[in-house]
């Protein structure tokens, strides 16, 4: 495994561990998800450049578009949660009360 692959894999795993273990605020979970998507975008774009595959070049841009949609949906959920509950702490949210 090259150092470049190791760094992208480590960045993705650190973001995954942040989502799994540090679930106190919704904003921190959204930031960890964005870090995971950024590491996937960079790894996918460098992979397509290294392999020289011309048919696969639009894939990183499509991943970036889906990441922007995910970020906007997450921020809308954050604003809605902060307005209704007054905080973004995940311990205060209960899906059974919806």
UniProtKB/TrEMBL annotation:
UniProt-recorded Gene Ontology molecular function terms: NADH dehydrogenase (ubiquinone) activity; oxidoreductase activity, acting on NAD(P)H
Location(s) in or outside the cell: Mitochondrion inner membrane; Mitochondrion membrane
Top EC group: translocase
Keywords assigned by UniProt, alphabetized: Electron transport, Membrane, Mitochondrion, Mitochondrion inner membrane, NAD, Respiratory chain, Translocase, Transmembrane, Transmembrane helix, Transport, Ubiquinone
EC number, UniProt record: 7.1.1.2
Membrane topology: Multi-pass membrane protein
Family annotation (InterPro entries): NADH_UbQ_OxRdtase_chain4L/K, NUOK/Mnh_C1-like
Pfam families, per the entry: Oxidored_q2
Residues spanning the membrane: 6-22, 29-49, 61-80
Domain of life (superkingdom): Eukaryota
UniProt entry tagged with the keyword Transmembrane: yes
Leader sequence residues: none
UniProt keyword Transmembrane present: yes
Catalytic activity: a ubiquinone + NADH + 5 H(+)(in) = a ubiquinol + NAD(+) + 4 H(+)(out)
Gene Ontology biological process terms from the UniProt entry: ATP synthesis coupled electron transport
A GO-annotated cellular component: NADH dehydrogenase complex
Family label: Belongs to the complex I subunit 4L family.
Physiological role: Core subunit of the mitochondrial membrane respiratory chain NADH dehydrogenase (Complex I) which catalyzes electron transfer from NADH through the respiratory chain, using ubiquinone as an electron acceptor. Part of the enzyme membrane arm which is embedded in the lipid bilayer and involved in proton translocation.
Protein name stated in the entry: NADH-ubiquinone oxidoreductase chain 4L
Classification lineage: Eukaryota, Metazoa, Chordata, Craniata, Vertebrata
Gene name for this UniProt entry: ND4L
